[in-house]
Amino acid sequence: MVIRKKYSFPGYIYIMPWLIGFLVLQLVPLVRSFWYSFTDFQLLGDPKFVGLDNYRKIFSGDLSFLKSLQVTAAYVLIAVPCKIAFALAIAVILNQKIKGINLFRTLYYIPSILGGSVSIAVLWKYLFMNQGVLNNLLTSIGLPGADWLGDPNLALGTVSLVTIWQFGSSMLLFLAGLKQIPESLYEAARIDGAGKMRIFWKITLPQLSSIVLFNLIMQMINAFQDFTPAFVITQGGPLKSTYLYGLMLYDHGFKFFRMGYASALSWILFAIILFFTGLTFKSSDSWVHYGDSL
Amino acid sequence: MIRQKHSFAKIASYVLLILLAYIMVYPLLWMIGASFKSNEEIFGTLSLLPRNPVFGAFASGWKGSGQYGFGTFFINTFLMVVPTVLFTVFSSMLVGYGFARFNFPLKKILFIVMLSTMMLPATVIIIPRYIFFRELGWLDSYLPFIVPALLGCFPFFNFMMVQFFRGLPLEIDESGKLDGCNSFVILKDLLLPLCKSAMFSVIVFQFVWTWNEFFNALIYISSVAKYPVALGLRMTMDISAEFDWNQIMAMSLLSILPPVILFFSAQKYFVEGIATTGMKN
């Protein structure tokens, strides 16, 4: 990997853009945000140090904090596993020798390109609204429609569907991983008389486990911070049933301009994400199998 | 017998794949159809094709309802996206080369730091960044998008390029050095021509992400004259949601076209790029 054993100066020149960017646009903001979280800072005027006040307020009486924590937890628990399961299932099916695989790959990937775009959120609103497409479809085959976006019990599920629908990039990673599994492993298993399901659980899944881990962590980090779908489709309603943490953060920071309070909220989110990422990493010792390449 | 079972499984997976693909793209097909339907027809029928096609939705939607139309929003989006993408390619290339081919003090630690910033939630630094850009007078401009791209603040792309460079044989560099090229010439003349697929992946990802950017646009851009399409679309929806569904669908459709076109034209390189940048690890 390394050309010369002795240190060379040019390396620093090449990574300089990132180094400056990291210091100025990531490290300094990180420190500042930590400081702001102990202040009362209304954007106009200087931050006033208030110690742990923000945190105390958040934990002792902020009902919307509790609500959005609950909503976000439910959202992450619905969206992330479903997305990964879909991505894996489709990747396995697409990994067979199938004609037109490129077409399928593209079709499944398209929703992910459009990603969290507003147009998709707008579209979702129309598909799932009261006299929307889905309800028309259901009534036409004699089933009762539902108030997908207006019913607090259903709205979060409907919003999660947009996220799950975009399983394309996870799927591509799985597909790339499947291509790396040596055919000899499968052959050996087939000779031993293992069935399809057994092969999947005993060979495919363990071989893909490092990609499962990567997808899990990336999707989790993203899902905890999601904003656009809920903001455009439901504005957090009805009855705050889709009031994701990202929405609450936006409200405090950029609607009420309570920068100190919002900074404290963002550090709590950071701690939560760190905790769950760490937990996932820790648990991975027992379920991720690295190939001999690592 | 075995053969029969085999082909049955194959047919079953085809049916499943086609059915699922239909469900996946149905919303998009519906969107296309809806932009040619009259408002009464949009929710009245289930068929994707419009019974009495209307073509006015694109023209009237494009004009917009306020002072600024989608012409402005589209130009704005390009003004924001194109420099961001170009600078991302440029910076990730340099940083990737630096980490992949040179040895310098603290390299290991810096690399780990860079990787861990990939996991740093954007929300933690969004507020100080906003305040910082406000202090610099950059709010309501596209600098909050362009400058971070120039400064390699998308570690995901840096990492991708590192992985890609690591996959290129060292002999290329060695032969360049024997010919007396300096490291920059080696990068520019020998390595970059081999980077096409990785470059396309960076371009596609960054184009699509910046194009779809909503949250950052929402907080950094405040005047309607500078709205990118995403904000323009949302504004249109707020103003006219009661009446002009077909216009909104038409504009939504137009707004997803550039990323889709880019994806299709770069698809070959893109998929290859993902496979070769070590995302497989």
Automatic annotation (TrEMBL), chain A:
Cell location: Cell membrane
InterPro entries per UniProt: ABC_transporter_permease (IPR051393), MetI-like (IPR000515), MetI-like_sf (IPR035906)
Keywords: Cell membrane, Membrane, Transmembrane, Transmembrane helix, Transport
Membrane topology of the entry: Multi-pass membrane protein
GO cellular component: plasma membrane
CDD domains named among the record's database cross-references: TM_PBP2
TM helices/strands, residue ranges: 12-35, 73-94, 106-127, 154-178, 199-221, 259-281
Lineage top rank: taxon: Bacteria
Keyword RNA-binding: no
Alphabetical list of SUPFAM superfamilies matching this protein: MalF N-terminal region-like, MetI-like
GO BP term, pick one: transmembrane transport
Coiled coil residues, start to end: none
Location of the ABC transmembrane type-1 domain: 65-280
Family per similarity comment: Belongs to the binding-protein-dependent transport system permease family.
The protein's name: Binding-protein-dependent transport systems inner membrane component
TrEMBL record, chain B:
Record's GO cellular component terms: plasma membrane
Domain spans labelled ABC transmembrane type-1: 74-266
Domain of life: Bacteria
Segments passing through the bilayer: 12-32, 73-97, 109-133, 145-165, 214-233, 245-266
Keywords on record: Cell membrane, Membrane, Transmembrane, Transmembrane helix, Transport
Subcellular location as annotated: Cell membrane
Membrane topology, from the record: Multi-pass membrane protein
Family as reported in the entry's similarity comment: Belongs to the binding-protein-dependent transport system permease family.
Name by which UniProt lists this protein: Carbohydrate ABC transporter membrane protein 2, CUT1 family
Organism taxonomic ancestry: Bacteria, Pseudomonadati, Spirochaetota, Spirochaetia, Spirochaetales
